[in-house]
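#random but structural
TW: two for the price of one
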Amino acid sequence: MKNKNRILPHPILSVILVIIWLLLNNTIAPGHILLGTFLAVLIPWFTSSFWPERVYVRNPLTFLKFSLVVIYDIVVANLTVAKQVIGPNSNLKPTFFKLPLDITHPLGISTLASTISLTPGTVSCDLSEDRKYLIIHGLVIDDAKKTIKEIKKRYEKPLMEVFKSC
């Protein structure tokens, strides 16, 4: 594969890996920067042959907006879920529901499923074999149709822009 010959076959992934390494270790010590950078170069280099195609972010600004929405939603959902879990169990309405997918790019589907699971109170449980829908579990689902509409608007629509024509 031609990406194997490059020092950084997936530069965006390398940058993200360094940032995640530093956040997980809660430090910007020179040793951790060096080790994180070392891993961020080696991991994509060794795994590049497993990637069927090169990943391109078509709309970086849309991806940045998407990331900010996800961070906001994670913070709000953490507070909401904490309140719901501390409250009476009768307020919980756990439900499984199917999210029909319009996004077709495999990395887009994976990003959507991960985003749903990162947001407290929801978990992506399975992807149908035909990749037409995700099965999701929600801790408190009053209206599944409303939840589906919200997920499609807040997460799937921007991801379709980011990963279109990849």
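TW: number two ↓
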Amino acid sequence: MEYFFLGDSELVTAFRLVGIDGVPVSGADDAGAAFRRITESYDSISGAVLPGVETCHVLIVTEEVADWLGDSLIDWQLKGHYPLIVEVPGIMGRLPGRKTLMDTIREAIGVHV
């Protein structure tokens, strides 16, 4: 399975060290443009494809990038197409108010051990 990363330049470098390609984004416009290039290339495999994207099955984004992408990210996730989206904390840690996966599961089942 192939992975691709969108986030700040420090984390892009870190992910490259473990063999995962990525593109640094520094704002909502950069993030939106990169996300469109990834998803459009996956839909139609046409034109300007980012390196490493043509085989991407999992797109890793920081929470900050996910916030920048907003509804377009949610719309893509609801389609159920590849690449699948995984959110990770950014270089500064979790964003305030974000729930962890465990918090979401505990809310869903109503059990806290």
